[in-house]
Amino acid sequence: MSKNYAVVGATGAVGVEILKVLENRNVDVGQLKLLASPRSAGKTMTFRGKEYTVEALSEDSFHDVQVALFSAGGSISKQYGPVAVSSGCVVVDNSSAFRMDPEVPLVVPEINPEAVKLHKGIIANPNCSTIILLMAVYPIYKLYGVKKIIVSTYQAASGAGAAAMQELEDQAKAHLAGTEVPTNILPHQLAFNVFSHNSSMDPESGYNQEEVKMVKETHKILGDANIAIAPTCVRVSTFRAHAESIHLELREKGDVEKMREALAAFPGVKVLDNRQANRFPMPLEVSGKDDVYVGRVRMDYDDQSGTNVQLFVVGDQLLKGAALNAVQIAELL
Ligand code: A2P
């Protein structure tokens, strides 16, 4: 039976992708409500060839809606998520507002789909860097166990929203034209630059919020707090796919060919690991793709123990890192 859907943040970078994913996956959508800020009220958007008018989000938005996909930031989720639940909706929330709440399942459908059953109205979609990391790590974790993860991210502008993607484009043009480079959304010039992730930094630990999310969310999703995780999160001047360089310390000796086979067999993962042609995953090629791409599967150069492996991973932040994962959760309901 079809369900009525609401997309909160429908005009945003993730919201637009949610509509495309619902369309492409033939999700049985009955009525559809597109919700955003009052700035967007009255704007029209197309879904399955039909025009819909965007409405301003309010406490009355959720009558007769069964599934609400939220992607309008943490404060909107905190304020309106419980309102949607009390109107009878199941909320799939893309923000970090409820992820670490013990009552809220945090789900990557290929990894812990069973957690969805425990929901009490809200299911959280994990952080994009965490989803992309775990899609590559989980098949290896199942094979050999993992003691430690050292990960460095190369994160696209899309994670900071549609306005940040536009600003990256404007910055590139301004930089090349020799005019003043705008930094209204991003804290620094991202075009032709790399900077430490723009989430807030804890001066005591030296870790930013994005890094802390990768640690805590990995422990929650895998139900394994024994994995040591050392992340470094960085923004690079790409538009929408995140890359990650990952080092794993395995619990047992690993075999590169077996790991490649396990990755290739895992739903939602593709192996692109052509050493002869020097062809590995790239953000430009992975943008717009559902799968997370893994390459450069290799043992640590100097390690004699056979338990240290390295990977290079790229996933579309807006799709598997956000919209696709959220719609897959809705499909599980
Ligand atoms: P709007 O386009 O009207 O500003 P992004 O992550 O790309 O920045 O998108 C954020 C999304 O959240 C947009 O759809 C945006 O709508 C929406 N949003 C921002 N503030 C509010 C608000 N106060 N109420 C409802 N939606 C909001």
TrEMBL record:
The gene is asd. It comes from Leptonema illini. Belongs to the aspartate-semialdehyde dehydrogenase family. Substrate binds at residues 155, 235. The keyword Translocase does not apply. Homodimer. This is Aspartate-semialdehyde dehydrogenase. GO terms for molecular function: aspartate-semialdehyde dehydrogenase activity; NAD binding; NADP binding; protein dimerization activity. It comes from the Bacteria. Catalyzes the NADPH-dependent formation of L-aspartate-semialdehyde (L-ASA) by the reductive dephosphorylation of L-aspartyl-4-phosphate. The active site is at 128 (acyl-thioester intermediate), 242 (proton acceptor). The keyword NADP applies. It catalyses: L-aspartate 4-semialdehyde + phosphate + NADP(+) = 4-phospho-L-aspartate + NADPH + H(+). NADP(+) binds at residues 11-14, 39-40, 158-159. CDD domains: ASADH_C_bac_euk_like (cd18131), VcASADH2_like_N (cd02316). Residues 4-119 form the Semialdehyde dehydrogenase NAD-binding domain. It is an enzyme of class 1 (oxidoreductase). Phosphate binds at residue 99. One of its GO terms (biological process) is lysine biosynthetic process via diaminopimelate. Pathway: Amino-acid biosynthesis; L-threonine biosynthesis; L-threonine from L-aspartate: step 2/5; Amino-acid biosynthesis; L-lysine biosynthesis via DAP pathway; (S)-tetrahydrodipicolinate from L-aspartate: step 2/4; Amino-acid biosynthesis; L-methionine biosynthesis via de novo pathway; L-homoserine from L-aspartate: step 2/3. InterPro entries: Asp_semialdehyde_DH (IPR012080), Asp_semialdehyde_DH_beta (IPR005986), NAD(P)-bd_dom_sf (IPR036291), Semialdehyde_DH_NAD-bd (IPR000534), Semialdhyde_DH_dimer_dom (IPR012280). Keywords: Amino-acid biosynthesis, Diaminopimelate biosynthesis, Lysine biosynthesis, Methionine biosynthesis, NADP, Oxidoreductase, Threonine biosynthesis. Its EC number is 1.2.1.11.
